[in-house]
């Protein structure tokens, strides 16, 4: 069990470290909230989604889901449309730290919806979680080892997203205490649009 847990922890850490759409969103929410706890809806949603995906991977459902063409295509199209729309909405956001917190921070419902979309509708993230982690879990035959592996992978997500929210909040306060957050929103919007383009590429090239 210990070997499986260490294996899962190291593997999940290596996969989650690169700053993609999911990580960038958590960082942004940490930065634009007066308190880092304001980003908790995004943090918890992303963590729960990762935990669900890891569980499905360990149960062996990943290969079936990813190789159903129409299901992968529909999820991808929904993700692309959502990213384009949310990018447009984010680009329009205005506000600064000198104004009321609600002028810059996303409300909980919006955080939850977007965090779920970038966690569940992104084929690249699904490949990392379901294929790589799911494939690695096949090395273990006992349920005790599988549970230890999955638990370690999930713990990485929870720790990492909390770390990102707190780190983003500290960096935001230090660097942007008295400046407008328009640039942050614009950068986030561009990230969403680029992610939509990349998502389309992944769908087109995924075999």
Automatic annotation (TrEMBL):
<feature type="transmembrane region" description="Helical">
    <location>
        <begin position="6"/>
        <end position="27"/>
    </location>
</feature>
<feature type="transmembrane region" description="Helical">
    <location>
        <begin position="39"/>
        <end position="64"/>
    </location>
</feature>
<dbReference type="GO" id="GO:0005886">
    <property type="term" value="C:plasma membrane"/>
</dbReference>
<keyword id="KW-0472">Membrane</keyword>
<dbReference type="GO" id="GO:0015171">
    <property type="term" value="F:amino acid transmembrane transporter activity"/>
</dbReference>
<keyword id="KW-1003">Cell membrane</keyword>
<feature type="transmembrane region" description="Helical">
    <location>
        <begin position="125"/>
        <end position="143"/>
    </location>
</feature>
<keyword id="KW-0812">Transmembrane</keyword>
<feature type="transmembrane region" description="Helical">
    <location>
        <begin position="184"/>
        <end position="204"/>
    </location>
</feature>
<dbReference type="Pfam" id="PF01810">
    <property type="entry name" value="LysE"/>
</dbReference>
<keyword id="KW-1133">Transmembrane helix</keyword>
<dbReference type="InterPro" id="IPR001123">
    <property type="entry name" value="LeuE-type"/>
</dbReference>
<feature type="transmembrane region" description="Helical">
    <location>
        <begin position="149"/>
        <end position="172"/>
    </location>
</feature>
<protein>
    <submittedName>
        <fullName>L-lysine exporter family protein LysE/ArgO</fullName>
    </submittedName>
</protein>
<feature type="transmembrane region" description="Helical">
    <location>
        <begin position="70"/>
        <end position="88"/>
    </location>
</feature>
